[in-house]
Amino acid sequence: MGTKILIIFSTLTSLLLLSLLYIPTKQTHPITIFRPTKTFIVPKGQPNPYNATFAYLVSASTGDTMKLKRLMLALYHPGNYYLIHMDAGAPENEHQEIARFVSSNAVFAEVGNVWIVKKGNIVTYRGPTMLATTLHAMSVLLRTAQWDWFINLSASDYPLVTQDALIHAFSNLPKDLNFVQHTSHLGWKMNKRGKPIIIDPGLYSVNKSEIWWVIKQRSLPSAFKLYTGSAWTILSRSFAEYCIVGWDNLPRTLLLYYTNFVSSPEGYFQTLLCNSEDFKNKTVNHDLHYMDTPPSNPRSLGKDYRRMIQPFARKFKKRNYQDRSGASETREQAVCLRRMVFVV
Q1: Yes or no: is domain 51-338 CATH 3.90.550?
Q2: pLDDT of 45 over the 70 cut
Q3: What keyword terms does UniProt attach to this protein (predicted)?
Q4: How far is CA 49 from the centre of its chain?
Q5: In sequence order, which ranges of the chain are alpha helices (DSSP H)?
Q6: Between the N and C ends of the chain, which has fewer C-beta atoms within 10 Å?
Q7: Cα-atom radius of gyration of the chain, to the nearest Å?
Q8: Residue-range domain boundaries for the chain
Q9: pTM score over 0.70
């Protein structure tokens, strides 16, 4: 009798442990609202026609709907993935306009690789909310699709090369390279960025407002070295996974530190990459963006041609144009943009 009871008990225990292994958890459960109804699937037995794929976060705020449409039409490729984030502070009619733009595009619907963040975030550029939005987009895209590099753009950006050309250029590159402009020479940012402490109401308020400055300042950190650079990056999938999953505690430690940091998007990824033993030697010191600083606006093809040989450039102001759909440039303006003849 004792042996039978022991066998029954052991069997039930084994079945219970086995069932626990197959219970889906919140971490592994798919995010259905972002999952496409159709995907760009390569037939079995055939090689993937694209040796490099990109996942884009395209951010927009109030008044950016026309610029966002312009960017998406120029940036779109069936082999890539696109997540659009509209600032929660933008008017409801602008959110609806972007939703109509995506849902009414026949190609977007057929391929199923363009999504919109359902619940947008309040974004203040100089606070950590922009960084939080970027990390949120990384997390969504990691769980939604397979890709090689993550690229963050704003509606004021514009591609200077075709996506086919960009895919070709990245096809033979190591997939773990990160393209981030960075430096440890803080200069004026030592006192204007490293020491001030700020509070961003966008983290806890439904209304957008300016960041708050704390009177008392802090000393520079000694546990890690600060780096700074451009907020626009091209990050490998492996590094994106490191940012989200964080197999050591550095990503979380730096995220807490940069919560009260002025313009945290200009320092978080740089500092994380350069302080990580796994990634510090896998970083190219360039963000592959053309920016005329100041005032961060491209000027003209004749004057800036050599410096404009980059995949992307910014900022491009809003243009007053409409076609039959009310979405894109006139023929002359479209040719002008694609030839990089910019006068801003």
Answers
A1: yes
A2: no
A3: Glycoprotein, Glycosyltransferase, Membrane, Signal, Transferase
A4: 24
A5: 2-21, 65-75, 92-104, 106-111, 129-144, 163-170, 189, 237-245, 250-258, 268-275, 301-304, 331-338
A6: N
A7: 23
A8: 51-338
A9: yes
DSSP letters of 15-39?
HHHHHHHTSPPTTTS--GGGS-SS-
- Going by pLDDT thresholds of 50, 70 and 90, the confidence category of residue 68 is very high
289, amino acid identity: H
Give the helix/strand (H/E) hosting 213. strand 212-214
CA angle at 314 for the pair 312 and 316, rounded to the nearest 5°: 120
Among 57, 299, 276, 56, CA closest to 182: 276
**Distance from C-alpha of 301 to C-alpha of 18, rounded to nearest angstrom:** 65
Max distance between CA atoms of the chain, in angstroms, equals: 94
Polymer length of the chain: 344
CB atoms within 10 A of CB 318: 13
SS3 for 124? coil
Q: How far apart are CA 69 and CA 101, in angstroms?
A: 8
Q: How far apart are CA 189 and CA 187, in angstroms?
A: 5
- 202: three-class secondary structure by DSSP: helix
109-167 per-position pLDDT tens digit = 999 999 999 888 888 878 899 999 999 999 999 999 999 999 999 998 888 889 999 99
Q: Which residues pair with 178 in a beta bridge?
A: 283
Between helix 65-75 and helix 331-338 the angle, nearest 10°, is 60
C-alpha closest to that of 323 among 4, 63, 69: 69
**Angle CA 258–175–183, to nearest 5:** 40
Distant-in-sequence, close-in-space partners of 212: CB < 8 Å, separation ≥ 6: 198, 199, 200, 201
The percent of residues in the chain predicted with pLDDT above 90, rounded, is 46
The residue among 159, 86, 162, 130 whose CA lies nearest residue 316 is: 159
Give me the amino acid identity at 93.
Answer: N
Cβ pair 142, 242 in contact under 8 A? no
